[in-house]
Amino acid sequence: MAHSLDEPTAPALHRTLRWQDAFALAMAVSGGLFVSFGFTMAAIGALSALFIWALAAGIGWAQNHLFAEMASMFPDKPGGVPVYAHEAWKERFAPAGALATFGYWFGWSAVISIVSLTAGAIIEARWLPESAWSLNLGIAQLGTAQIIGIALILALMVPNLFGAQPAAWVNKVFGALLLIPLFTFVIAPLISGQWDISNLTWGLGQPGADHWGGWQDAIVWLYLVGWTAYGTEMCAAFTPEYRSNKDARRALSTSGGYTFLMFALVPLGVGGLMTQADAAADPTAVFVSGFASVLPAGFAGDAALLITIGALLMGVNASMADGSRALYGAAIDGLVPRQFEKLNRHQVPARAILAAVMMNVLLMIFVSNPISILVAANMGYLLAILLAVSGFLLLRRDRPDAPRTFKLGAWAVPLAVVLTIYGAAILVIGALSSELSGYGGPVELAIGAGILLLSLLLYLIRRRFQDRLPLLREPRSLATTANTVAPTPPVNTK
Length: 494
Prior knowledge:
CATH architecture: Up-down Bundle
Strand order of the largest sheet: 1-2
CATH superfamily: Amino acid/polyamine transporter I
Oligomer: single chain
CATH class: Mainly Alpha
Largest sheet: 2 strands, antiparallel
CATH topology: Amino acid/polyamine transporter I
Number of domains: 1
Radius of gyration: 22 Å
Structural class: mainly alpha
Strand content: under 5%
Distance between the termini: 30 Å
Number of helices: 20
Order of helices and strands: HHHHHHEEHHHHHHHHHHHHHH
């Protein structure tokens, strides 16, 4: 059936990806250990931190199975999790899709500035310690680390503008390097005389502990770790770009399982190499110090730093790729301004990528502590996950006979109920108690709420103004419209 010129259709994304490509992009999630695990270990001990990270990754893996079925219901819809939330909730509460989309996009996109600035600071401290570079903008002054961070963002923007496959190749290179420290820590208990089981301390639920016997602290850390541990759901965002209908399910399953193993085994290895006091003294140096204790002197330091930088850049690359698809998919569904519907000549949502780049450059210029932004952004991201998981139940109820190329058994419904209750508890208690981590508080809650209110404002602009005033719609070329008449069918590969 042909579409009219006035109908909000979109050019088809190129089907060039295999599940291995999405797996490579999702490997960035395991690199998140380098950024945050040291802080968790310093606060609650290595064994407790292992429990928190492994549990969160296990929850993410379980959620991926639900998202795989939902992806099979909407094989031509880009954007992944927030789009599924919109489809499930649009008949009951239409703004839910806008809340999920913008919260999800900001949660993924805001991290770009944080990890780029971290990478810039590492480069400056190790290789440019005497540098006095600075750039005075009048309203702000950029230091060396900020300049390097902005340069890294702009460099990684380039492959993303050419498509998901070039972005995946970048992560394959970084991912191969990332395997070196990950597997080093996995086998550390067997090869290192420095590994000591007594270092695996448990800091939760001790007699006399405050905050619900320590379990409120556990919930706060599960809230903070959620963005990283659930991140493999990004594989769903590329569903219209896979060559086969099976690729989304395979990518979600394998990346979730791999991340769970890494989040269980790597903390076991590094936790036995360092004491909690060592981690508290310098949380960011836990992996570097652990790496140095296992490998020969003289080689470990620079190697660990280079690999850490690579792991950080994987996160920047994956965030650009995933967040841009989410914003593009939301525009197609009428949840954000129409301008984000447009693809470039490589069939990539370039405007969404540029929006993320500009936002993160501004964050690096004007925000002195971007980690607080990440704490706030977690609120929107975890809300998006919650709306999608609960949306699974709504889709099973409202559309039981809708075509699905993959359908879970009857056990999926009680699983979704448990995950919905769990997700709601982590979101509400974790957000309201985030000050226990030392990174949150009323200001961060206000920022998180402001992000969600902004999503509603963008939704109103789209629905009340752009969709009602044809003159505000961008003209579509005949060539673009022709591309939307019949979506390119997936290639069934074995």
